[in-house]
Amino acid sequence: MIFVRLYLQDGLIKRIESAGHASASEGVSIPCAGVSLVLRTAGRLINKVPAAKLDVRANKEGEFFLDVLSPERLSRDWYSGVSSYILQALEDLVRDFPDQIKLSVEEL
Fold first, then answer.
1. Orientation angle between helical segments 76-96 and 30-47, nearest 10 degrees
2. Most distant CA pair in the chain: distance in Å?
3. Which residue blocks in the chain are alpha helix, DSSP H?
């Protein structure tokens, strides 16, 4: 089971925490690959903004942590789109794999 927690601040992603694995079929886990792709790309995309300050960690396999330390330094319109995309992608994965991915969203 993959557990993903999104923490929002004013409707924008402030922090992402993910831990766990989903079951694999023939050595491949589509849910793991999907979550990994969304989270890794989110971190890389936000990190491309010169003004962004992030704490991003993946200390061991199956774990991911991202904290946007300075969301006010990002363009609100741009970051709103990024946040909406991340949330929609994760919600779609949960819809497709409800027994393997759990998502919680909390406003800070």
1. 170
2. 44
3. 30-47, 76-96
Closest of 99, 29, 21 to residue 60, by C-alpha? 21
- The pLDDT value recorded for residue 25 is 75
Q: Which residues contact 67 (CB under 8 A, 6 or more apart)?
A: 14, 15, 54, 55, 56
**CATH 3.30.70.1490 is right for the domain spanning 2-107:** yes
Q: pLDDT at residue 70 above 80?
A: yes
Euclidean distance between CA atoms 23 and 56, whole angstroms = 25
Question: Where in the chain are the domains?
Answer: 2-107
Among 57, 51, 107, CA closest to 83: 107
